[in-house]
């Protein structure tokens, strides 16, 4: 749905063949794929390196070891996904992943190596073998740097930073560009033959999150407002081990720590995970996160991550960024017990997209965390996120090269059960919720443990706030951020209330069992245009 950003001064008007919104791994790999196909413009709301890709610590999973295979990687992915992974999407991820990872190595990505020169592979939760390539604990930063340098060398590519995409422009049901706002308050428009949404996640919807401030769900809001289908937004992954020190930032403590032998203990020093789950500390993230919350409630005390039984020098050398974050909080990662608790980390749902990135709106593509191909099902396997961005970013770029303006090309995901939302048939109410109100409500009512009463209350409040948003495109950066948080929170709460079962990251205390007969399906929403 078109609209106009209004501000003082003349409208900045740009034109390009291919528009990419975002600058993470999916965006940059798509840009590489588009080299030589025409003019490419990358629009990013902050600095190019600011986003979830740069914050990814643990690594990138791929079946590159002699004792591994794509089929084994697929089995682990599907097992973690709690019966809701789209198996064709999983096959694409695990079978094409090794090729794209080797490509990164050829381009100069400095993954850690063993003394003999072979790749140093880590094991993380729910993986059956060591398959996670890493660059100490800054893998996302390393990959992002390599892809950034490669795109910077391309001819015909422009990058506009500190420009917030605020609304998609559609004409006759097709996406033909985007409206944006600059930090200086200028308004602009980009016209493009094909547009890729690679805007990342929405962790800022929650009061407690590992995500940077830029992850406000803008892509989901813009695509939904333009009529694109969204799906699986009830599935939000809460990372179990986040630094929990009063006054210190909520810093992610990578799953790779537990992969290297870190233990979860209670205040008495007991390893409670060994009685909670057969896989102990290496159980899927959803089960570890819920176990931590239950243990905190049972004992009335904090839960800790302990590496005290491991060599201090090796710990600090393997995890320098995490060690530094702990040091700033007054703790020694190798010698102290580190207090941890869960925080919102990753959204499995998003803009419904097929395996080539097509959405239900012709001309609009989506890849990376903003997209929902259903590859992760109800719970993402650790270190599959960077691989997803790499593989599906490349596929989206290839599809954009071949984009036929006369057909949408959208084919899935299969089995999506869409419910329409028609706001014009409802009474609009005045806006009363601040951004902080949204975050606190979501953390209180739509987090790790959910039930109908709290979900219904949250959905009703958020729907009223959503209906109270101004019509048309946001006219300020703060207005766009606010609209994104309200919209995505509303869609998440509505989806969580609708799914009356427990599956993966979605746990209903009033419906604690998984129900494959009724709920082994993908559910979504679409905004019916007036």
Describe the structure.
Helix 1 links the parallel strand 1 (12-21) and strand 2 (40-43). The protein has 16 helices and 19 strands. Among the domains are: 242-342, Succinate dehydrogenase/fumarate reductase flavoprotein, catalytic domain (Flavocytochrome C3, Chain A, domain 1), CATH 3.90.700.10; 422-527, Methane Monooxygenase Hydroxylase, Chain G, domain 1 (Up-down Bundle). The longest helix has 22 residues, at 477-498. The strands form 4 sheets. Strands 1, 2, 6, 7, 8, 9 and 16 form a 7-stranded mixed sheet that branches. A 5-stranded mixed sheet has the order 17-15-10-19-18, covered by helices on one side. Strands 11-14-13-12 form a 4-stranded antiparallel sheet, covered by helices on one side. The protein has helices spanning 25-33, 52-55, 70-80, 87-106, 139-152, 218-225, 255-259, 273-276, 285-299, 312-318, 320-328, 385-401, 435-445, 452-467, 477-498, 516-519; strands spanning 12-21, 40-43, 60-61, 121-122, 132-133, 157-160, 163-171, 174-182, 187-197, 230-231, 236-243, 263-265, 303-306, 338-347, 350-352, 364-366, 371-372, 416-421, 522-527. It is globular and about 60 Å long.
């Amino acid at each position: 749905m078109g609209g106009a950003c209004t501000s003082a001064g003349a409208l900045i008007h740009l034109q390009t063949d291919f528009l990419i919104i975002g600058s993470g791994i999916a965006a940059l790999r798509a840009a590489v794929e588009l080299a030589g196909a025409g003019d490419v413009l990358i629009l990013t709301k902050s600095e190019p390196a600011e986003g979830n890709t740069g914050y990814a610590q643990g690594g990138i999973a791929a079946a590159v070891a002699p004792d591994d295979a794509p089929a084994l990687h697929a089995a682990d992915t599907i097992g973690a996904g709690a019966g809701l992974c789209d198996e064709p999407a999983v096959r694409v991820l695990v079978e094409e992943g090794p090729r794209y990872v080797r490509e990164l190595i050829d381009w100069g990505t400095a993954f850690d190596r063993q003394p003999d020169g072979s790749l140093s592979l880590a094991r993380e939760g729910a993986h059956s073998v060591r398959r996670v390539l890493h660059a100490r604990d800054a893998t996302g930063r390393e990959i992002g740097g390599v892809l950034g340098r490669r795109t910077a060398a391309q001819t015909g590519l422009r990058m506009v930073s500190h420009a917030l995409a605020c609304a998609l422009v559609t004409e006759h049901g097709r996406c033909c560009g985007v409206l944006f706002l600059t930090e200086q308050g200028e308004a602009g428009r980009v016209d493009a033959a094909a547009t890729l949404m690679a805007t990342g996640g929405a962790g800022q919807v929650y009061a407690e999150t590992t995500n940077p401030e830029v992850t406000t769900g803008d892509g989901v809001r813009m695509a939904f407002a333009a009529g694109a289908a969204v799906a699986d937004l009830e599935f939000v992954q809460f990372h179990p081990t986040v630094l929990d020190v009063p006054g210190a930032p909520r810093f992610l403590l990578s799953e790779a720590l537990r992969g290297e032998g870190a233990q979860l203990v209670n205040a008495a020093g007991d390893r409670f995970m060994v009685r909670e789950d057969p896989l102990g500390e290496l159980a899927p993230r959803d089960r570890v996160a819920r176990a931590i919350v239950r243990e905190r409630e049972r004992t009335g005390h904090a839960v800790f991550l302990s590496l005290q039984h491991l060599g201090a020098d090796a710990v600090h050398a393997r995890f320098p960024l995490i060690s530094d974050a702990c040091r700033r909080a007054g703790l020694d990662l190798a010698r102290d017990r580190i207090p941890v608790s869960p925080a919102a980390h990753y959204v499995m749902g998003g803009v419904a997209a097929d395996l080539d990135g097509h959405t239900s709106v012709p001309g609009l593509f989506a890849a990376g965390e903003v997209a929902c191909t259903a590859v992760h099902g109800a719970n993402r396997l650790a270190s599959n996120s960077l691989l997803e961005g790499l593989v599906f970013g490349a596929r989206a770029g290839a599809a954009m090269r071949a984009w036929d303006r006369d057909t949408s090309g959208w084919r899935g995901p299969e089995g999506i059960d869409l419910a329409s939302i028609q706001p014009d048939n409802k009474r609009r109410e005045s806006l009363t919720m601040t951004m902080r109100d949204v975050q606190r409500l979501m953390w209180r009512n739509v987090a790790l443990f959910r039930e109908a009463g709290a979900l219904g209350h949250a959905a009703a409040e958020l729907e009223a706030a959503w209906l109270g948003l101004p019509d048309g495109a946001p006219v300020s950066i703060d207005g766009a951020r606010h609209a994104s948080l309200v919209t995505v929170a509303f869609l998440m709460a509505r989806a969580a209330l609708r799914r009356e079962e427990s599956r993966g990251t979605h746990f209903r205390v009033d419906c604690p069992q998984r129900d494959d007969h009724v709920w082994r399906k993908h559910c979504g929403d679409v905004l019916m245009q007036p």
